[in-house]
Design brief:
- By secondary structure, this protein is α/β, with parallel strands linked by helices.
- The protein has 2 domains: 92 residues, MurE/MurF, N-terminal domain (Udp-n-acetylmuramoylalanyl-d-glutamate--2,6- Diaminopimelate Ligase, Chain: A, domain 1), CATH 3.40.1390.10; 186 residues, UDP N-Acetylglucosamine Acyltransferase, domain 1.
- The chain is built from 5 helices and 34 strands.
- The strands form 5 sheets. A 10-stranded mixed beta sheet has the order 8-11-14-19-22-25-28-31-33-34. An 8-stranded parallel beta sheet has the order 7-10-13-18-21-24-27-30, with no helix packed on it.
- The protein is globular, with a radius of gyration of 23 Å.
Amino acid sequence: MKFPKPYTLSAISEIINAKYVGDKNFEILGMNEIHVVEKGDIVFVDHPKYYDKALQSKASVVLINKDVPCPDGKALLISEDPFSDFNKLTNFFKPFKASLKPISDSAIIGKTSIIQPNVFIGNNVQIGEHCIIHPNVIIYDNCIIGNHVTIHAGTVLGGDAFYYKNRPTGYDKLISGGRVVIEDHVDIGAACTIDKGVTGDTTIGKGSKLDNQIQVGHDTLIGKKCLIASQTGIAGCVVVEDEVTIWGQVGIISGITIGKGAVIYAQAGIAKSLAGGKTYWGSPAGEARDKFKEMASMRYLPDLIKQLKRE
């Protein structure tokens, strides 16, 4: 998430009432999570396990809950609760604004696009040319939709990330301030749900096709010309590279990469990154050929057990 203009370190510290380490005029351009952080950004960290990763990241400012040496060329914001202060910044720069109309006045819609009845289009949405948005589609604020995109009935774009911190008093939600970006020539089936990024974008690449009832988590990147079948669930921060085929009811854990051209058979459970150009199946998934051999060998187990008992 980039700020509308550069902010100084001292100005950000005043917004969240935190102590800072560094030049008060140190320039800050935005805020992001660790996996998408860039130079000029703030990143937050609240667990010792991840201190080094955050301090050594591309982030220019680290929002942290411990006094630590400040790396050269960076600045620190010292906070008792970085998670909550990160939320304060999201609310400051991307506050929720209620929509008073089914289609917001601030939405930009291509003249050749068709919007069917009962569609909701939020603030600052952009829809390109030659799109068809079918009934009861909901498009939350700030979503970007390219040209020649079809979205079928009941799909929701831009819901909040499923991202919570477990506290003694209950689960504390990390507020989502990102977007959903749908590139050109994408088809999205009925009753799909595509969550926006926490600070960045959830992206569906050019020419990809999604079946009905698919869930795509926050900050996930689906590449170009991917084919994803019904009831697939993709968690947050996943990278699906170009030309991947995913068949029905596949479950994919967060933070992994599916390599270019991979094929994943139905009902597979993906618990780690997969190399491209191969076919996978099973839970946990492995190369399909090996999994089929394992299943075939299982037929011989009863006879083998009988033989062992006789011996």
